[in-house]
C-alpha cells in the first residue's frame, strides 16, 4: 500500500511510469519498482576488497601456524567445520588483508558475527561466569 507522498516521490523519480491523462501505467510502475529494489540490493552486496586477496597458500600457512586449531576456541579444524573470520569485521571497517583474517570453526564464526574479538571473548566470559554462578 502506498501513501500519497510516496507515490508523488516515485512519480518525480520515474517519469516513465505515467501514461496519458496523469494516470499510472501499472506494468511500467511495477517494472520500475523491481529495478529500483534490485539495484539497491546489488549495491549493498558489493564490498571493497582493496586488492587484498587471501590465497590457498595463505590458508595452508595459517592452518599450520594455528596447528589446525580454531584461533578463538582451540577446537580442531577440519575441512567440514572451518571458516575464515575477519578479526576486525568488515562492517567495522576491516578488510580482506591476510593480517585481518584468522581461521575459526563455523560455529564460532556464526556466534561472533560482527563483534570484535575482544567483545566476543568478553561476552563468552560473562556467559561462563553466569552459568557457573547458577549451578552453585
Account of the protein in words:
By secondary structure, the protein is mainly alpha-helical. Helices cover 49% and strands 7% of the residues. Strands 1-2 form a two-stranded antiparallel ribbon. The longest helix is centred in the first third of the chain and has 20 residues, at 26-45. 7% of the residues are buried.
Quick summary:
The protein has 136 residues and is mostly helical.
Helix count, DSSP H or I runs of 4 or more residues: 5
Spatial strand sequence of the major β-sheet: 1-2
Overall pLDDT level: 80
Tell me the span between the first and last alpha carbons.
Answer: 55 Å
Instruction: Tell me, briefly, the overall form.
Output: elongated
Structural class: mainly alpha
How are the elements arranged and paired?
Layout: H1 4-13, H2 26-45, H3 56-65, E1 82-86, E2 101-105, H4 106-112, H5 117-135
Antiparallel strand pairs: 1-2
